[in-house]
Amino acid sequence: MQVKEFKGCGTALITPFKKDLSVDYDKYRILIKRQIDNGMHFIVPLGTTGETPCLEKEEKVKLLSIAVEEANGKIPVVVGAGSNYTKEVLSNIKEFEKIGIDGLLVVTPYYNKPTQEGMYNHFKAVSESTDKPIILYNVPGRTGVNMSAETCLRLAELKNIVATKEASSNYAQISEIIRSAPAGFSVLSGNDDEVLSLCATGAKGVISVASNLAPKEMAEFLNLILKGDYEGARREHHRLTPLFKNCFIESNPIPVKAGMGSLGLIENILRPPLYPATTKTYEVMTDTVKKLGIK
User: Where are the alpha helices (DSSP H) in 51-156?
Assistant: First the structure.
């Protein structure tokens, strides 16, 4: 699939586990079918929401293979390939390209806190290693480092860097990227509760956590935005705001897995150092699902 622009809603897929902490590949396949059947625009396996730091290499390859097989050209598959070691990112890309991906999501290097020039050179090396479209991912709350608007815009000039997923919650910074980006470069929200405000400014969509639980609702919400129905989109934003908020009352993906567990979609299991939601969070998510009529 030749994808020139990623827009709409993409789901940052969770990884379902069994009670023995092994990956539940059968459930994963069912979850992806649920995403496609409910109109999701694209899917993003192996991101942070998928607990990727706690997955073995063989598990990553198998999960991605299932995602590509189930998508079957119907919707794009954008794989999380990031690491805080440039050589490892290039190795991931080489491995993942064999499987048939449509794009790459690459996070800023975490923990070691590179300079802006270090980030630029990291992503330049990534760009030069592949012909696949690349989505940058800026999430300072997880990585400990912020990619500035200036650095993002420099990278936007490279041949196959086509978008950024912005989860900095720095509206001035994100607005500057939208305002100054070259033609063909898109901004995607990394936070569900910021989708409407960013898209009203010119962003093209979201890579979503909430859509794991509510794919139909999130796909329809983004469809309203994409066709310019901001009155309808405002109604949906306000209706879904409790879901957006409650998906982050504990570390992601703890609450969204609790909600999915309450629907019987998965076992409510996470790999240590993450653990299932507290009783209070589970009750909040169960109540949220019920009030929104999510099935």
Answer: 57-71, 86-97, 116-128, 140-143, 149-155
Element (H, E) at 78: strand 78-80
Q: Establish if 248 belongs to a structural domain.
A: no
The number of domains in the chain is: 1
Write the pLDDT tens digit of every residue in 129-178.
Answer: 999 999 999 999 999 999 999 999 999 999 999 999 999 999 999 999 99
CATH number, residue 33: 3.20.20.70
Q: What is the pTM assigned to this prediction?
A: 0.96
How crowded is residue 12: how many other Cβ atoms within 10 Å of its Cβ? 28
Tokens of 98: 């064999």
Neighbours of 45 (CB within 10 A): 29
Is 263 inside a domain boundary?
no
Active-site residue set: 137, 165
Which tokens belong to 139? 């999430």
Residue 64's domain spans which residues? Answer: 8-230
Of 174, 198, 292, nearest in space to 243 by CA = 292
Q: Which pLDDT score, from 0 to 100, does residue 152 have?
A: 98
Instruction: Calculate the dihedral angle through the C-alpha atoms of 105, 106, 111, 112, rounding to the nearest 10 degrees.
Output: 180
Residue 201: how many other CB atoms lie within 10 Å? 13
Is residue 78 in some structural domain? yes
